[in-house]
Every structure is written in C-alpha cells, then in structure tokens.
Design goal:
This protein is of the alpha+beta class and 424 residues long. The chain folds into 3 domains: 3-77, OB fold (Dihydrolipoamide Acetyltransferase, E2P); 161-197, Dihydrolipoamide Transferase, CATH 4.10.320; 227-422, Chloramphenicol acetyltransferase-like domain (Chloramphenicol Acetyltransferase, 2-Layer Sandwich), CATH 3.30.559.10. Helices cover 27% and strands 25% of the residues.
Length: 424
C-alpha cells in the first residue's frame, strides 16, 4: 500500500510551505528517516524526512510550488508495487504570459464627437487607428470599431530627413512613432523621444511569494485583526552607554542585548504585555521569550531568545549572536522562530529616530528602538548634554489599555536609565 508524503505543520503559525528541492527522483529507493525534500516554511528552510522505506513512486508537487499544510506531496510505494489509481498527476507550475512589447506613450488625438461616441459605447480609443489628419481619430473610425469593421490603413507618415537617418542609426521603427509636426510629420524630436523610451531600463518584477509573501500576509493579518496603537517616549541612556563600554571589555555586547534584558526584567511586573492571542483567549505566558527582528537580504525573520528573564547579559548576547548568524545562513529551525511573547526591533543602527513597529502576531506588543543621540537637558539650573534613545511601543488595544501600556513603557525607561540591575 502506498505511503502518502504530506506537508506537516511545523508550529502553530505555519499555514503553507514551498517545495524547495526534491532530494530524490521518481524511481529512487528511499529509507525511512532519509532526507527527502527541502521545504521553505514560515521563513525557515526545513528538510523533510521520508515517512517510510520503499521507492519514490510519484512526485505530485514540483519544486517552487507553494501548498497548504497537509497537502499531498508525493507517494512512496513498495518495490514492484503499482501506483494506486486515481492519483493526480504532478502539478504544472504556471508559465507567465509574455510581456507585451513596449511602445512609446503618445497622446491620442481624437475629435470631440468621436470621444463622446467611444465613451457611450465603451470603446478603448487606444486600440483604434485614426484615419484623419495626423492620425486623428474621427467619429467614423469609432463607428467602424463599434460595428467591428477595420479602419482603412492610414496614409504613410511624412518623415523629416534627419529624423529618418536618426531612426535608421538606432533601429527605431517609424511606424511606431507618432509625429508631432504639421499633418503628423515625424520630426527629429519625435525620434529622439522614441530612442529614450526604447533605451529606458525595464522595471524588474519580483513575485510576492516565498519569504516575501509570508511577510506580506503576516503584516496584513496583523494590521487587519488588531487595534494597534503606538506610544513614543525618550530615555536618558547616558549611564547605559557607559555600562556597555565597560561590559564590552568582558564580552561582545550590543544595545539590542541590553534592551532585551531590560524588556524581560520589566515584563515581570507587566504580564499583560507578555501574552499571546489564541482565538478568543488571551494567554499570559509566565516566561518571557523575546523575539529579535533580524534583517535578511530577502526579508525579515524573528528568531526567539527563550527564557530571556532567566539569562544573564552575557548569555543573551551569546544567544542573539548565534541566532543572527544562523538566520543569515538560513539554518534556523522552526522551533527557533516560533513561540515568542514579545518582540524587539532596532532601527537605530540605521540612523532612525522613531518609527511605528507592527506587532508580530499572535503577540500583543512590540518595541521599536531608535538611534542614540545627544540632547541638551536642563539640570540644576544649567544645561547638560545627555545620551538619549527614543522608544516606540506598539500594543494591541484589544488586550492592553493605554494606561497599562504607558506604565510599562515608563518602567522600561527607568530600567534603562538605571542599568546597574541589568548586569546582575
């Protein structure tokens, strides 16, 4: 009896996966547990093992195809066993239609009567060849289009000698150039415009699939299903900057590491923000699992620092380094990108002061970290230059009200402004 190979669900957030590469061909022998197919799911690459031993009888989903979880990918049969009847043939990936040839954009000349007639009958004027002076579309041209009659060929366009020579040098088809001179005469300027348009770079089309497609769907889901509100405040991080310089003598440490530690510490007193929405329920998680946004060449991924509240600064720094490296190498496992309860995203490294981060569902809050800059502060009757960081907290107003969210943000600022406890 044939064994079905179906796409599993790696994590609650996984809805679909993309077949990356089949590691076996039809007719190849396979052993149970042997690597069978590479799958891209939830922004990570996973190798799916064979569920049984036998022969790979039929591949039903070709490489590069995205399918929902539990979709039938292939069939494994015993040696000599025939494939069961009624199984679908492999899917064929759709072939994109060829792009239409580029044509120079021109202004359509049309008589008022012809324009009104075309509007009344739903006629596309760009598809009509005018027979009037200079290619002008007349009411007779529109009537022929309405009746399905072909318009008579227009008279050959007059071309200035210099324009004809220039068109020959650059391979421009004069029949595709509309003249702007008297009686539709093609001028040198008309040909030069056609040359510029022909040499203009063709826009690149990037398919909204794979990693980019997953990101697009999740962000759309986040904004459509949550009542997101963003609070912004500044923190005096002068002492935090000093502490980092001191601790860097012991181990590699970033401001993101310090913020993760401060967030985990602050969430203990504000558990409402350390939660996940599951259906109609709000699940308050006792441990803080902090997601860290990592930018990749083809998108964004959020690996998770688990039990951040129980880790030292050194352990957090070591973990974020490891996760970021694996993210860029594409070796993160599904377990390392799921289960976060709160996310930190730092755009300060790109010189951004403040921004509006979008919540990573099913979490209920995310913290955006801005750059550190010097700001004059009045103290004891004088002005002091202090290191300042802007923090942007986005929260789901369905779960958390404004006052508790503001209280969390102020507590976090206090923690960053008195950072001695972070090194404990």
């Amino acid at each position: 009896m044939a064994t079905e190979v179906r796409l599993p669900q790696w994590g609650m957030g996984m809805q679909e996966g993309t077949v990356g590469r089949w590691l076996k061909r039809e007719g190849d022998a396979v052993q149970e547990g042997e690597d069978l197919v590479e799958v891209e799911a939830a922004k990570v690459n996973e190798v799916m093992p064979a569920p049984a031993s036998g022969v790979l009888g039929r591949i039903l989903v070709p490489e590069g195809t995205t399918v929902p979880v539990r979709e039938l990918l292939a069939l494994i049969v015993a040696p000599g066993e025939a494939l069961p009847e009624g199984r679908a043939a492999p899917r064929e990936a759709p072939t994109p239609a060829p792009a239409p040839p580029r044509q120079a954009e021109t202004r359509i000349q049309v008589t008022p009567v012809a324009r009104r007639l075309a509007r009344e009958h739903g006629i596309d004027l760009s598809q009509i060849q005018g027979s009037g002076s200079g290619g002008r579309i007349t009411d007779q041209d529109v009537r022929r289009a309405i009746e399905g009659q072909a318009a008579p060929p227009p008279p050959p366009a007059q071309v200035e000698p210099r324009a004809r020579r220039l068109a020959t040098e650059h391979g421009i088809d004069l029949s595709q150039v509309r003249g702007s001179g008297p009686v539709g005469r093609i001028t040198e300027a008309d040909v030069r415009r056609a040359i510029e348009e022909a040499e203009a770079p063709t826009p690149e089309t990037v398919s909204l699939t794979g990693v980019r497609g997953v990101i697009a769907r999740r962000l759309h889901e986040s904004l459509q299903t949550m009542a997101q509100v963003t609070l912004t405040a500044e923190a005096d991080v002068t002492d935090l900057v000093k502490q980092r310089e001191e601790l860097k003598q012991q181990f590699d440490l970033t401001y993101t590491d310090l913020v993760i530690k401060a967030v985990a510490f602050t969430l203990k007193a504000h558990p409402r923000l350390n939660a996940r929405v599951e259906g109609e329920d709000i699940r308050l998680v006792p441990e803080s699992h902090i997601g860290v946004a990592v930018s990749l060449e083809d998108g964004l991924i959020v690996p998770v620092v688990r039990n951040a509240g129980q880790k030292t600064l050194g352990e957090i720094a070591q973990e974020t380094r490891r996760l970021a490296q694996q993210a860029r190498e594409g070796t993160l496992t599904p377990a390392e990108v799921t289960g976060s309860t709160f996310t930190v995203t730092n755009l300060g490294v790109y010189g951004v002061d403040a921004f509006t981060p979008i919540i990573n569902p099913p979490e209920v809050a995310i913290l955006g970290v801005g750059r550190i800059f010097e700001k004059p502060t009045r103290r004891n009757g004088g002005l002091l230059w202090r290191q300042t960081m802007t923090l942007s907290l986005t929260f789901d107003h369905r779960v958390v009200d404004g006052a508790p969210a503001a209280a969390f943000l102020q507590a976090l600022i206090k923690c960053l402004e008195t950072p001695a406890r972070l090194a404990e």
